[in-house]
Design goal:
Helix 1 runs antiparallel to helix 5 and helix 2 packs parallel to helix 5. Helix content is about 35%, strand content about 25%. The chain contains seven helices and seven strands. Strands 1, 2, 3, 4, 5, 6 and 7 form a seven-stranded mixed beta sheet that branches. A hairpin with a 2-residue loop joins strand 4 and strand 5. It is of the alpha/beta class. About 40% of the residues are buried.
Length: about 230
Amino acid sequence: MRFTAFLALIFTLFTGGVGKRTIFSYTKSSVALELHNFHRSLHNAPPLTWKKNLVKYAKGWCLKLAKKNLFEHSYEDKYAEKRNGAQWGENLYVYSTETTGWEFPRMNRKEAMIEAAIRTKDAIDQWVAEKQYYNYQNPDFGIFAKWGHFTQAVWKDTTEVGCAAVFKRHSPTERRTYVCCNYYNRGNVGGQYLQNVDPPVAVAEPNFADRPGPGVITCTDPETCELNNGP
């Protein structure tokens, strides 16, 4: 996939500035959904649909991780129990950038949204890259942590997805992007791997620049900006 094509799409969507912010949340569907469905097509899995309730859940959990400086699954917390999230699958990612000797400038709206979108792509690419550790005929559960994100992403019985990315300036010299995706039906169900995770087949790569969509950015409070964009 050409990285320049991905950037071309992102720059068509994000314009304008928001002044000084410490947290940005990003819940655009096009890139996350199309990347998931491209990788699912490689494994004979049907395309997913974008679900707002999963987006809302993912966004809430990503915001909690960012604000509390955590990195753990929501089902390890009362968050899942309170919001009925235990029924959903979940993939998480965090990217941290640090500097020495100088401070990160505060991002404007376009810069923060581009950062979040790029990290969303990177998260999904990293999850599916775990296929190198997966044995399609005899999965090794002793190394589940090395391939469990991949199998959830391409799980055939999963029909819906919702993702959010949250950018947080943790300190003057460190910034992080958290990416959370939730899935229904949940994957990684014991005894169902052979019928839900197929070996890869060859298909053409998507060109995101050919399908730019409208973007709407709203700031709900002085700390949080969100971009929503339906398929």
